[in-house]
Amino acid sequence: MLKSRVITAIVLAVLFLLALFLLPMAAWAALVVLVVLQGATEWSKLAKLEGFGATLYRVITLLIMLVLIWVVPRTSEQFVSVHLSVYAVSALLWLIIVPAWLMIGWKVERPWLMALVGWAVLIPTGLAMLDLRVASPWVLLSVMGLVWMADIAAYFTGRKFGRHKLAPNISPGKTWEGVAGAMLGVSCYVLLVWSFSPYSSQREVLPILLFAAWWWVGLAVIGDLFESAIKRQAGVKDSGTLLPGHGGLLDRIDALTSTLPLAALAILLPFLR
Question: What is the pTM of this model?
Answer without folding.
Answer: 0.90
